Amino acid sequence: MQEPRNQSLQNLFGEALRETSDLAQKEFALFRTEMSESIKNVFVGLAMVVAAAVFAIAAVMLLTEALVKWLGTVLGSEALAALIVAALMAVIAIGLGLYGRSAFSRFSLTPERTVRSIKRDTEVLSERVSG
User: Fold this and answer.
1) How far apart are CA 56 and CA 48, in angstroms?
2) Domain residues of the chain, as ranges?
3) 3: Cβ–Cβ under 8 A, 6 or more apart, which residues?
4) Which of 1, 40, 92, 104 is least surrounded by Cβ atoms within 10 Å, i.e. has the fewest?
């Protein structure tokens, strides 16, 4: 027959293993949920950006053509008008590109809540083991 102290240690160890396993399953479920939400949001956002880009390209082409023709009549030279409009569009494109790059740098796929929760769980388990 085993001593009560050994049985108690075995029970505590078994309980700790069960709790750790349960905790790991819950953390993994949280991770999956958080990642699927992030990925879904990325794809929806990407689809909207692509659709907007298609319409924006068509609008920019028509507006550019109209601006070049109008400026050509004002300046008397359609080539000069096209050069001015192209330079203006290049400046706008650079500005938008720099803004887009900064927006992407703020984007993260890191599951923030899961990482915080795992750190907190690790601290609690460390305290239980050492205490």
Assistant:
1) 12
2) 4-130
3) none
4) 1
d(CA 2, CA 41): 57
Question: Phi then psi for 107, rounded to 5 degrees?
Answer: -80, 140
Answer for the pair 111, 38: CB distance below 8 angstroms, yes or no. yes
pLDDT digits over 101-123, tens only?
888 887 776 777 878 888 888 88
Enter the tokens of residue 11.
Answer: 């029970």
Going from the C-alpha of 52 to that of each of 56, 61, 94, the distances in angstroms are 6, 14, 19
- Compute the chain's Rg from CA coordinates: 30
Task: Give the residue with greater pLDDT, 63 vs 5.
Answer: 63
